[in-house]
Design goal:
Elements (H helix, E strand, L loop, with lengths): L1 E2 L4 E9 L1 H8 L1 H18 L5 E6 L2 E7 L4 H15 L3 E3 L2 E3 L2 E9 L4 E2 L1 H17 L5 E3 L1
Parallel strand pairs: 7-9
Antiparallel strand pairs: 1-8, 2-4, 2-7, 3-4, 5-6
Helix pairs in contact: 1-2, 2-3
């Protein structure tokens, strides 16, 4: 169990319809989509934010000192909008969206790595159940 002195948020992202792109247009198209998603994440996050690809179509963003809900909602909106931009790959239009789960940890709040990731994962699945292409807070 940790008690953070510095607040942060963790945003987990799962790409919607990524498997369809891979299965329909091939893994090279999927790789191009992943690169485009990485570009969106780099464009919309700050220099000190930590961006991680967990594997497959899952990403995590650790956002130090960002726990303001309005700013987090704006960031999530920008990321979703960016990932929904169609990508033209060898004449084929590849289009995905993303579902995001957000957990904020405030100064002095006890937390564990596993618990925080689990909460974010549950929020991602709530976003998927809500229709995909959206975000939910834990």
């Amino acid at each position: 169990m940790h008690a953070t002195q510095e607040p942060f948020s963790l945003v987990m992202m799962d790409l919607d319809r990524f498997k369809y792109v891979n299965d329909t247009f091939g893994h090279a198209a999927g790789d191009a989509v992943l690169c485009a998603v990485a570009d969106v994440l780099r464009r919309e996050t700050r220099q000190n934010d930590i961006l991680v690809r967990l594997g497959g179509d899952e990403f995590v963003m650790i956002l130090p000192h960002l726990v303001d809900r309005v700013r987090l909602e704006r960031l999530c909106d920008l990321i979703i909008k960016g990932t929904e931009e169609p990508l033209l790959f060898v004449g084929q239009q590849c289009q995905i969206s993303s579902s995001l789960g957000v957990v904020s940890v405030f100064s002095g709040q006890p937390w564990t790595d596993a618990q925080t990731i689990e909460q974010a994962d549950h929020a991602v699945y709530a976003a998927k159940r809500a229709g995909r292409g959206c975000y939910r807070f834990a």
